[in-house]
Design brief:
Two copies of one chain form a homodimer. Chain A is an alpha+beta fold. Chain A is built from eleven helices and twelve strands.
Chain lengths: 330, 330
């Protein structure tokens, strides 16, 4: 295997390989969850997450607004802290940029990061800048904390749990595909939907509420697409899942965009990626407690005994294997 | 200024701009030192540093060994923790790489990072991988801790202090320039010097010893070149400096390489960069205490009242202004 390319091993194959090389550590949670969890004296764990946005992969310089890119760079990391039930606190920002980049772009990028950070209570306290003739890279490391009794991870989903999600699914992908194609919808509601979805908003309040009330058995943020992230959560918990495709929450915007793009909105919701909603495994009887905390959830499936495949009940009532593994980088 | 390129503002101009946009934070030390310092309950501060290695800027794929690149990616960050008197603990590794990169390269890169981390007591606990068709990027965030009473920063150099450095200066630059030119020295001692200097070794033991014994008034790691880093330390401390060029510690290897490359070894030592030695401001009478702790230092100058320029006493006995600002990325 050593002589093949990383693309033939795939992102998650590579992560497994890296995890084996690194071996066991003294971290509470090391490689393999949304954020690393480090034990510290006192009542709180330290959380640390890193997420990189790469020009040409995650955004295009021609279409991105620097301020939006900055907000997004923070939000995707806050989302990783949210799924552990944590509180974001401090960020380090590492940039690689071309010498010819405008100062105004860097200004606006930081304005966006500062604004998004502030809205979540996080501050930028350091970083690094490097030059490159290659793509612009925005790499944010976010630190936070979580009360030791409140930590939620990917591990812990129990057979019989419901699987529920915040918000709607597929918006990130639908809006991106539409933007890449160019053109704007005539409906002002849809125009504002596109603007909103260009910058995801991490579900930090929901994540904390579910964690503090001890309602979530396991949690993950949906960054790779629902089908991939259901798989990640199930593998970590040693369980299986059956989804009900008829119950996937799909926004009016995603439905419209799917029609425009001639895509199946269910497929967009299942494998779109970049939604940054939370996927939660929890007891069915706790749904009303979540509701009363102000956390709106949609039940999309159920945890079943471990199986090789994630299954989904289709629109027509037939059961199929979910083959999508979600967004992979290679 | 907003409409010009980042290269015309320069790395340190850009950092100042970013620092203004970010504004004051609740961190003990935010942007502008080797590592961020965060207050935590208990006796220790949290330290966090990030350093990015970019293909084509910091290394070339054609000449780099993956294992060496990995060790270097860790060492340059450990050096940032060393200069604060800290203990490295946990690393997050963020990679951007081409789909065609060999798996063996990634394996060896991580083997190198794990080995270097282990030698300093630090573990890899997370990270991120992204694809890019651009240059390979290795971005490491390292966090650690320091006893609250032992923290050393760039601030605190006092007029009358001596300026002293660990090790020798210019080796990183001399070896890199020699490697880029190609060819190998006949002398086996010089060959082993090149191998050693390809991967810097962070002065973590020395940094901790000086900090714990409260011998260092101010400290910085020499990553941008001595003349630049003296300037950074002096500006932060609100003082000036006079260096004595005749006392700069220069290795036999750097002397030889400078001759081969037709460079002045003093210039290489002053502005080479990538040495990852420590520069310390301390009381002259504490030098023997440092020596008895096993910390070998060479006095290279003295702290004087604040002045616009850093001055240096040349080989011929005349005083000159040091114009070099050290390594800048733009």
């Amino acid at each position: 295997v050593r002589n093949v390319s990383v693309s033939s091993v795939g992102e998650f194959g590579l992560i497994e390989r890296i995890s084996n090389i690194v071996g066991p550590t003294s971290a509470v949670i090391g490689i393999g969850d949304d954020a690393a969890v480090i034990d510290r004296p006192g009542d709180f764990y330290l959380l640390a997450a890193v997420d990189m946005l790469v020009e040409g992969v995650h955004f295009r310089l021609a279409t991105v607004e620097a301020d939006e890119l900055g907000r997004r760079a923070i939000e995707v990391n806050v989302s990783d802290i949210a799924s552990m039930g944590g509180i974001p606190e401090y960020a380090l920002v590492s940039l690689a940029m071309a010498p010819a980049l405008r100062v105004s772009f860097v200004d606006d990028l930081y304005q966006g990061m500062v604004a998004a950070g502030r809205s979540h209570g996080a501050q930028i306290v350091g970083g690094n800048i490097a030059s490159t003739e290659g793509p612009l890279i925005v790499d944010v490391t976010l630190f936070g904390s979580v009360a030791k009794g409140d930590l939620v991870t990917r591990v812990g989903a129990q057979i019989g749990d419901v699987l529920a999600v915040t918000g709607t699914l597929g918006d990130g992908a639908a809006a991106r595909l539409l933007t890449d194609r160019g053109g704007s919808p005539p409906d002002p509601d849809l125009q504002s939907w596109i603007r909103r979805t260009r910058v995801p908003r991490a579900r930090i309040v929901e994540g904390q509420a579910l964690a503090r009330a001890h309602l979530a058995h396991a949690m993950i943020d949906i960054s790779d697409g629902l089908s991939g992230d259901v798989r990640h959560l199930c593998r970590a918990s040693g369980v299986g899942a059956v989804l009900d495709e008829r119950s996937l929450p799909i926004s009016r915007g995603t439905a419209w965009a799917s029609r425009e793009l001639k895509l199946d909105p269910t497929e967009v919701a299942l494998s779109g990626g970049e939604d940054y909603q939370l996927l939660v495994a929890m007891a069915e009887q706790d749904l009303s407690a979540a509701e009363s905390l102000g956390v709106s959830l949609t039940v999309i499936g159920r945890v079943v005994p471990a199986a090789r495949d994630i299954r989904a009940l289709s629109e027509n009532g037939s059961m199929r294997k979910l083959t999508g593994t979600g967004w992979e980088h290679f």
